[in-house]
Amino acid sequence: MDPTTAARDNEIVELYWQRNESAIRLTHERYGGLCTRVAMNILGDPSDAEECVNDTYLKAWKSIPPERPRALGAFLTRITRNLALDRYRTKRRQKRDGEFTVMLSELGDCIPAPEETDATELLAHIKEFLRELEDTDRNLFVGRYFHAYEVQRMAEAYGLTPNAASLRLYKTREKLRVYLNERGYHV
User: Fold this and answer.
1) Is the alpha carbon torsion for 94, 99, 100, 104 positive or negative?
2) pLDDT by residue (tens digit) across 108-123?
3) What are the percentages of helix, strand and coil residues in the chain, rounded to 5?
4) What is the three-class DSSP state of 64?
């Protein structure tokens, strides 16, 4: 780091120590672009990246003092990277949870609620039903409802369009609903 950069960074850090809010403005002017690039590379979404950079400034404000970073740019990009990774993981988890919720609602149309039935007996009927299915339909059903695979992923694996895979899953659920209905399970 050249002496001018180090001196300027030390001035900004000193402003943080003095609790002078201009530290944040100067941080943004000097490192906002760098922090935004780091966040964008991880998140790929401008609004998420902007929010992450703002969180970086807040975290820097809370961390200085007591910390006195020797390299302000490295300090800020480390904070940005960690915040962006946390946000990325959270969004992935929410997406996965959302997909799981959709999957359960799809099954809710053909399988009675667990508290309304003997789960062991119901599972035995479902296994029996699955044995009677064509291989592709059985694999799609098991992949979707037991392994929680996305329809897109399974469609690609079986050479189908997502719409065709969804239609086959729908028809299989309807067959299961009728099958279970005939055995005394009503949704």
Assistant:
1) positive
2) 778 776 666 777 888 8
3) 80, 0, 20
4) coil
- The pair of three-digit structure tokens given for residue 174, joined into one six-digit string: 């309807």
Nearest-angstrom CA–CA distance, 83 and 52: 6
Tens of pLDDT, residues 61-91: 999 999 999 899 999 999 999 999 889 888 8
Specify the pTM: 0.55
Which runs of consecutive H residues, i.e. helices, occur in 44-132? 46-63, 72-108, 119-131
Structural fold of domain 3-93: Rna Polymerase Sigma Factor; Chain: A (1.10.1740)
Extents of the domains making up the chain: 3-93, 109-182
* Region of residue 184 (phi > 0: left; psi between -120 and 50: alpha; otherwise: beta): left
Q: Domain 109-182 falls in which CATH fold?
A: Arc Repressor Mutant, subunit A (1.10.10)
Q: Which residues of 67-79 are buried (b: 16+ CB within 10 A; e: fewer)?
A: eebeebbebbbeb
Rounded Cα distance, 16 and 38, in Å: 23
Per the CB < 8 A criterion, the answer to whether 177 and 110 are in contact is: yes
Exposure class string for 144-160: b at 16+ Cβ within 10 A, else e: bbeeebbbeebbeebeb
